[in-house]
Amino acid sequence: MAAKPFDGRGIMTPTLPRALLFDVFGTTVDWFGSVSRKISEVSSSVQQSVDSAGLTLNWRRAYYSGMAKVISGKCAWHRVDQIHREALDELLPRYELDCIDSTQRDDLNQIWHCLDPWPDSRSGLTKLRQNHYVATLSNGNLDLLIDLARHGNLQWDTLFCSDLFQHFKPDAETYLGACRLLALQPAEVMMVACHRGDLDAAASYGLCTAFVTRTLEYGGHEKADHASASEYDYVATDFIDLARQLEAA
Amino acid sequence: MAAKPFDGRGIMTPTLPRALLFDVFGTTVDWFGSVSRKISEVSSSVQQSVDSAGLTLNWRRAYYSGMAKVISGKCAWHRVDQIHREALDELLPRYELDCIDSTQRDDLNQIWHCLDPWPDSRSGLTKLRQNHYVATLSNGNLDLLIDLARHGNLQWDTLFCSDLFQHFKPDAETYLGACRLLALQPAEVMMVACHRGDLDAAASYGLCTAFVTRTLEYGGHEKADHASASEYDYVATDFIDLARQLEAA
Predict the structure, then answer these.
(1) Which of A120, B156, B169, B239 is most deeply buried (CB count within 10 A of its CB)?
(2) CB B183 to CB A143 under 8 A?
(3) A159 touches chain B (CB under 8 A)
(4) Are the beta carbons of A7 and B106 separated by less than 8 Å?
């Protein structure tokens, strides 16, 4: 009888990473498309015409600056839901949408729990899960990640979120915390993302890296990150391509 | 249009707990049956006859005493895999199984990652997940819980384990930590277990409780916990019965 690969944990390919950690916003789900459509709906419902792409992009920028305040210590810990909600209050008047009341704002904020996956995400994850643990490693809060998984019917083995560690990516505590909880060495774990910053941080802590190109992350309004083949352990066009490359490795 | 129940999180029944946290060993999976069968196999393979029920029950007792040492501060943090493995080294000589080598012991220890679910667990969870978040809240380590979910094809929304909190149940940090990560009040969360101690602790921290009877938890060799209808918020014969009761509530 052949020795059990990976001491019987059911993971079949000993030369490959045992766990894949996925960035979510942009890498797994299409925030731009989902949020801009929702903004258009909401603005129509209050008879306003709005630059929904602009508001979407600014909302996303405000998420980064909200996290930066926490990372730098200027702000106490904020869940991403709070960061999104506070950013919305700041942004709506600039788009002449201050008529939207508090309940409608809560409802609009909830769109971040219902982002559509990219067309390949679901089937790609299912394929990747056959040979690897698959988990999120996201700055989103846990209930948001649960809702995204339900909305997109994404089968994760478990969810790692910033609130578990009280740190946002790219802080070391997130990448290394996930490895510790999986009882794996960083070299046995691969970060999968469409953002170079996320992968560069992961690599600096010893994780393997897979870059996935998401050309339309910003709906074509801004240039998405790009990588050439030699820059990361894997560079893939989508999750299905990544699964194919890992199977062939 | 009716108001979105639970601010759009997709949970449909506002008068019921939004999240169900499940004990795993005994409540969701049959540790006694799975472990005792594995011990029989291993002892046959080394031409030994062994009291597999007795060894299984003692192994389980050693798990409790191993955790008690951590809870009382006598020992540093131990993952459950370590507690099981150290207990095995202590127990095997008492059963004249010291011939089993280190690799075989690792393999035997891994049985705790492959425990069969009770016959109702999978379909019951699928039913319960329609209206509630469903998650583990277990003293098992995370990779063990992932492996159990894969082995039994159990669809959890997420996994809470003791290593997240560096505390074992029944410490408050586990129950309240899960509530905090879900951004729910304890009263919005229900602990589901076949152990009175687990539920009594959960109730003392403000969680709702559901007792599920698992008469055969100890394979009939020891009396399993029992509860009468008034003692917990719900008392059910299995997960499917619990789903029925929650739907009717």
Answers:
(1) B239
(2) yes
(3) yes
(4) yes
Cβ-based neighbour number of residue B160 at 10 Å: 26
Q: Does the structure show a pLDDT above 90 at A1?
A: no
Hey, is B65 helix, strand or coil?
Answer: helix
User: Which residue pairs from B89-96 have beta carbons closer than 8 angstroms and sit at least 24 positions apart in sequence?
Assistant: B90/B62, B91/B55, B91/B58, B91/B59, B91/B62, B94/B58, B95/B50, B95/B51, B95/B54, B95/B55, B96/B48, B96/B50
Buried b (16+ CB within 10 A) or exposed e, A16-44: bbbbbbbbbbbbbbbbbbbbbebbbebbe
In whole angstroms, how large is the CA radius of gyration of chain A? 19
A-B Cβ pairs (cutoff 8 Å, strict)? 76
Q: What whole-number distance in Å separates Cα of residue B44 and Cα of residue B40?
A: 6
Taken as a whole, chain B contains a residue count of 249
Which residues, 6 or more positions from A152, have their beta carbon under 8 angstroms from its beta carbon?
A28, A29, A115, A116, A117, A121, A122
For the segment A161-217, what is each residue's pLDDT rounded down to a tens digit?
Answer: 999 999 999 999 999 999 999 999 999 999 999 999 999 999 999 999 999 999 999
A13 phi, psi to nearest 5 deg: -125, 95
DSSP string spanning B5-21? Answer: GGGGTS---TTS-SEEE
| Helices B80-91 and B52-71: angle between axes, nearest 10 degrees | 130
Does the ipTM surpass 0.85?
Answer: yes
d(CA A107, CA B71): 43
Average pLDDT, chain B: 93
Across the interface, which of A147, A182, A184 has its CB nearest the CB of B10?
A147
- Which pLDDT tens digit goes with each residue over A76-88? 999 999 999 999 9
Rounded Cα gap, residues A63 and A56, in angstroms: 11
Cβ–Cβ gap B146/A157 under 8 Å? yes
